[in-house]
Amino acid sequence: MQVRLISVTNPLIEIDNRQLTPEGLMAYCARVSSPHQETPDYEKLLSYCIQNKHWSVFEMVDMTVEITTSRAISPQILRHRSFCFQEFSQRYAKAQTTEKYKPRRQDVKNRQNSLDDLDEATVKWFDEAQEKIAQLAFESYEEALEKGIAKECARVLLPLATQTRLYMKGSIRSWIHYLEVRTDPATQKEHRDIAKAVQAIFVEQFPVTSKALGWKYGC
Prior knowledge:
Single alpha-helices involved in coiled-coils or other helix-helix interfaces, 2 domains, alpha+beta, 41% helix, 8 strands, transferase
């Protein structure tokens, strides 16, 4: 799993000979009806907007991240329809490798939960099973390509653990919602790890907004 920042909206206007920050741009747009639109301070304003659920302000700025994960997790990410996505195409390019996961025990009381208390022997068996399946799948995949079978057909031989890469772009409003949902313990751990990595980027890029939300670096 890897996550990295690709882009953040870059304001082109200046106030007091200083270029606006992305958060400054949100505040500038929020003050469209105010005679004090160019007021440089915005911490109280953004905090007020969050506390009173004035979310449209946070649609004025976008952020794009690159996510490397497995085909098992990417469909969960793609469900967030307020975002725009570009994902690695297995029709166009060859798949290269798989992501490996540490197994957890099924929670019998909650089908959407798992528990990290499996014995070492079971963990070892699962690790070896992943390696065996990945090796067989990729050997068959390569053989299919050598026989001239189209990538869009050969990909059916690949496991869900096959690695993929996608770009995820959305407004700060969308990111706030995504992070509130996907950092919750109810989210699958592998997806939650991605969300936490995105949240660390978010906190660094939007410190005032993050403070108002109660998010801290490393949270």
